[in-house]
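Thread: zinc ion complex, take 2
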Amino acid sequence: MVIYPMKCGTIIMESAYATPGHNEGMAARCAVGMFLIEHEQALVLVDTGNHPKVAEDAASYWGKDVAECIQPKMDRDDAVDRQLQRLGYKTSDIDIVVLTHMHLDHAGGMSLFPDATFYIQADELAAAMWPDPQFSRGHYEIKDFAQTRDFKIVRLNGDMDLMGDGKIRLIKTGGHSVGHQMVYTRLPEFGPTLLPGDACFMPEQLDFLTPPGMPIPDPERGLAMVRQIRDMVEKDDLYIAYSHPTNKDWIKACSSYMC
Ligand SMILES: [Zn+2]
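Output below.
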């Protein structure tokens, strides 16, 4: 069993969003992470990055405001289908897709997997279709999932042992988005590894104990999850595969451990 990190290009994260109250005024170019888990019984994809059309013209796919705000840098080869190809897989080889949540940098490639079974929290599905305008302006792109109503989607209401063997656990976090979940893995070769999605998307959030992605639907819950992740790291010697570390940290992680 192996976890492969895949990068769907980069986006700009402002400190007010990434580490509110710290590093004021800073903006960092950060990775857009996706992960492939090779379990003995299934190929499990965690998150699908940006839609491939973002590589052609982000402003026309996401709208000008979002494209200007997060300034994606993405080639067509960065999209999830080409990244899987690089690892020797076709999109139709993927058995299971777990979406940590349905923001546009996680659910963008969803429509490329009509044969897979999706595991998504039920309230995240509702939030993505009918987002609360206060928190989700521009966070969800309805084109990403407009054609997926007939897909096989397991609607979760809380935590789940995905394969029934304790090796891949989905843990509902809420906080960053209404139905956000993270993925905790215990793979023999890797030791305990957490894919926190955007519950804690870069290491600085653990350093500063800040809930990421402000404003969010439930900041208290967001902070509680960051604290819980910090406790897990201390207790369990946990490795964290962050979804949006700075590009520099992503490259460092890949060269030292993940790739
Ligand atoms: Zn994200």
